[in-house]
């Protein structure tokens, strides 16, 4: 599987972000053909705050969804568009990543399951659930180029989600992200490598990078990690592509040699208290 991740510094304007993505895809030329192309979280609608849900599109046929579908068709690739706002029943919006196929068909939509409500030591308080409705389905997509699982950003902190995808024998998990500079420096690489090793999957993580105009700073270091935990390709800083050819055929042997997924057991907890 040919794989290209785009590291971006998305700004507020979806139009601006879209034209940047278009330019970057043109750079790939025919290298994009039948490749997996992954864009970061909130690739078009970054840092919208409470305007996030106001810009939500219906779950089918929204303007930006169509633009991205056409982009996949133009470049004949499997395009993962990190999180667009899709209307939810309660007035919030789902953070929905799409997988578009090379004919421009919508193959899957994954709504971010774990929402980032956290105090980070960077002067910001994140309250994603205020404007975002959590998803409740995981997606495993069989394509002509491999079996793909989908997750987003903060999801990477929740190993059970990846265990569920691994139980479905996915080859690759895509992870569009917008990790903060603070938590990225501390945790990003370790989390990605851990999820790859323990589940014997390729982790394909496209992150936002840099200063976004609203004072927010994201970490970058988009990377591809193989099932042995090695970093195959990465881009520490700056905008641009991270590319690699992924030898999916090697996964089967690894799962035979060290069948951790079959060795999983759930033991019973016993509490012990020291007599006082
Ligand atoms: O708000 C936007 O425009 C785009 N979305 C994000 O930036 C999201 C929700 S605030 N960020 C994360 O999930 C960061 C997780 C993270 O940094 C960690 O787990 O440490």
Automatic annotation (TrEMBL):
Family matches, as InterPro entries: C-N_Hydrolase, C-N_Hydrolase_sf, Nit1/2_C-N_Hydrolase
GO molecular function: hydrolase activity, acting on carbon-nitrogen (but not peptide) bonds, in linear amides
CDD domains: nit
Record carries keyword Protein transport: no
Domain CN hydrolase stretches: 1-248
Keyword Hydrolase part of the UniProt annotation: yes
Protein name: Carbon-nitrogen hydrolase family protein
Gene3D superfamilies in UniProt: Carbon-nitrogen hydrolase (3.60.110.10)
Keywords: Hydrolase
